[in-house]
Specification:
65 residues; mainly alpha; Protein Yjbj, Chain: A; 5 helices; 0% strand
């Protein structure tokens, strides 16, 4: 699934994101609102990932949907 699709269906995708990244709160998922850059930033912040690793994980997650 590409990021335009993820963003358009974010309400559905939030549960899957929560299952993958349990550290993210509902408020943070609402703030992310399906935007790749927002998700990457939160993954960096919550999991201490470098940007490239956070981008890779976000893209792998979206592609697996």
């Amino acid at each position: 699934m590409n990021w335009d699709q993820v963003e358009g269906r974010w309400t559905e995708m939030k549960g899957k994101a929560r299952a993958s990244w349990g550290e993210l709160t509902d408020d943070e998922l609402d703030q992310i609102d399906g935007k790749r850059e927002q998700l990457v930033g939160k993954l960096q912040q919550k999991y201490g990932l470098v940007r490239e690793e956070a981008e890779r994980k976000a893209d792998e997650w979206a592609n697996a949907l």
